[in-house]
Design a protein that fits this description.
The structure is a single chain. By secondary structure, the protein is an alpha+beta fold. The protein has 4 domains: 151 residues, D-amino Acid Aminotransferase, Chain A, domain 1; 81 residues, 2-Layer Sandwich (Dna Ligase, domain 1), CATH 3.30.1490; 66 residues, no CATH class; 45 residues, no CATH class. It contains 10 helices and 18 strands. Strands 7, 8, 9, 10, 11 and 12 form a 6-stranded antiparallel β-sheet that branches. Strands 1-6-2-3 form a 4-stranded antiparallel β-sheet, with helices on one face. A hairpin with a 4-residue loop joins strand 10 and strand 11. The chain is elongated, with a radius of gyration of 31 Å. It starts with a helix and ends in a 6-residue tail after the last helix. 30% of the residues are buried. Bound molecules: adenosine-5'-diphosphate and magnesium ion. The site of adenosine-5'-diphosphate (ADP) has 18 residues, from strand 2, strand 7 and strand 10.
């Protein structure tokens, strides 16, 4: 799972990694207000997308007034930003992050990822800040220093020092850089990250060391240990809901509902999801009223063959239970038989209307009311 820079910075701040102070804005006015609140002569407006390379693509703008901040936000919000990491279609910017501008002295790189060969997380550091690590690896592999992290120990102080000195962090701020690198490693381990990257990590003219950019990805298989992080998921359209007719609230076409799939598809979905979601097995397969008995019993056989831990089905049967979830389609497919006082039988569909006692009822409702004994009681 990917999260945005501002979210990564919020998390890193909790682990005591120094990051610039900033504000989130979703409108140009909010961006202007954010500039004012930050009370800094220079701020940076940064497009929040799940991709890097924003700087070169116009997604990072230096601003010196609330008006400039508004304009910069206006240019980014609602538009697709194309960087070399997004593909030609780009990513639509829905949020901008406005942070205090830093008087950068030098830019470095620091990042942690799993080294599959070692089976350990490895911190990489480089003097070539701002450049992508893949590019540095291709052109100047000798400029990347590495330290493997023992998960039980974290990044040891001597390792962090070796990295900081090795990439040329000025001696007077090495102590701060060491703390930052160790905190970054702790954040990586505690949150089960798959990537935690600070590019650039900067030293400033006033002697601080800061994470100016932050990228964090999470190991999706470990998210169950960190359900709080799910709040950072980007929903494609948070207003979407089933049954919406308004285009802005419609679910994507590929969405479907449990009673729109066949019982066999239902079993397939359960078989796939029960490996990960234990409660998926308690979802009942809805069986249409016009389903043949032979096929009905085969659902159970099929469930057994697919290795399901269990299987429940529901089929509308008015003799047992009508319930509130009964669908128009079920009523159409169901025959109701009423025996009149003179012994004649009257056969009607559930959705047909019948006059009884001087009132009009659907056959299904009348049948249910008489069966349950509440007809005329209310
Ligand atoms: N708060 C800031 N103050 C000053 N310069 C910044 C700030 N944030 C980013 N920059 C500059 O913009 C460049 C690109 O920003 P960054 O956040 O790394 O985006 P990306 O990696 O997507 O291009 C940085 O390398 C840095 O030079
Ligand atoms: Mg960057």
């Amino acid at each position: 799972m990917k999260i945005h820079e501002y979210q990564a910075k919020e998390l890193l701040r909790r682990f005591a990694v120094p990051v610039p102070e900033g504000r989130v804005a979703r409108t140009a006015d909010q961006a202007a207000a954010a500039f004012q609140e930050l009370a800094s002569p220079i701020a940076v407006v940064k497009a929040q997308i799940h991709a890097g390379g924003r700087g070169k693509a116009g997604g990072v703008k230096l601003v010196r007034s609330a008006d400039d901040a508004r304009k910069a936000a206006e240019e980014m919000l609602g538009k697709a930003l194309v960087t070399h990491q997004t593909g030609p279609q780009g990513r639509v910017v829905q949020t901008v992050w406005i942070e205090k501008g830093s008087a950068i002295d030098r830019e470095f790189y620091a990042g942690i990822a799993l080294d599959r060969r070692l089976g350990l997380p490895v911190m990489m550091a480089s003097s070539e800040g701002g450049m992508e690590i893949e590019e540095v690896a291709a052109k100047h592999p000798e400029k990347i220093l590495r330290e493997a992290i023992e998960p039980g120990l974290g990044l040891m102080a001597y390792q962090a020092r070796r990295l900081a000195f090795g990439i040329g962090v000025p001696a007077d701020v090495v102590g701060k850089a060491v703390k930052l690198l160790q905190s970054l490693a702790k954040a990586y381990l505690d949150m089960d990250c798959s990537i935690a990257e600070v590019n650039p990590l900067v030293t400033t003219k006033d002697g601080s060391v800061l994470a100016l950019d932050a990228k964090i990805n999470f190991d999706a298989n470990a998210l169950f240990r960190h359900t709080e992080l799910l709040a950072y998921r980007d929903l494609i359209n948070p207003r979407a809901m089933q049954g919406a007719t308004n285009a802005a609230e419609k679910l994507p076409d590929y969405f479907t509902a449990a009673d729109e799939v066949t019982p066999k598809q239902h079993v397939d979905i359960q078989a796939a999801s029960q490996k990960w979601v234990d409660s998926s097995i308690s979802k009942t397969a809805n069986v249409p009223t016009d389903y043949k008995y032979d096929e009905f019993k085969d659902i159970y056989l099929y469930a057994h063959e697919q290795g399901l831990k269990g299987c429940t089905t529901f089929r509308f049967n008015p003799e047992a239970f009508q319930g509130v979830l009964v669908k128009e389609e079920d009523l159409k497919n169901t025959k109701y038989v009423f025996t009149l006082e003179d012994g004649t039988e009257l056969e009607v569909r559930g959705d047909e209307e019948i006059e009884y006692d001087g009132e009009i009822h659907t056959a299904a409702n009348l049948f249910d009311a008489m069966k349950e004994g509440y007809y005329g009681k209310f």
